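note to self — DONT lose this again. spent like an hour looking for the file last time. sequence + predicted structure for the chain T wanted, 207 res
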Amino acid sequence: LYVMGCGAWTTVPWFSRAFRDGDKGLKMAQQVGDRIQEGCGYSYIGWAAYLDNNPKIGYEYGQKGLTMLKESGEYWSVGVGYTARAYTDCYMGRLKEGLEEVEEFISVCKEANSLQSLGWGYYHKAKMRCFNGELEDETVKILEEAIKIAKDTSDTPNVMHEPGMIGFVYLRRKDYANALKYAEYSLGLFPTHFGSGVWTLETFHIG
């Protein structure tokens, strides 16, 4: 419960509570030798650290969580760990390394048939390509696949969030009409699709 509490408090967001519960859950898991919950704890604390503007800790904890969870079958938390790592890669400018890591993310999700997490992987691949100046139609197609998966899995915060990144691709192309079209579409969904997905607030910066 404490481990899951970390993830829950992160969505509010109330980071002091997230770190408190995450740390308690992590210590309990270590005491009883529950490596799945220990890995989950590292993943959720890593995610909270990224959102609390501490990407180095986010990357470190996300990496620890991934190492423990890859063979556990706990693919939701594996996806959270990969996602936290992908966000921190972008934040720290590790685009080359991040693209290699996100390909691993996508491969693991495909092998596990973890569809929602696969959509996250596609999103981060396209985002890193965009930040790296790869603004071709292929980047837009990857984002469109991520959006399709978000819709198929009822991942409503990302149904709202991900079109905004297509708008950002067009913005970097200096195609301002399409950039505005996608930004307005994405922000128009915010009232009904936010769903406490605190990470989606970056959509406003894109808009």
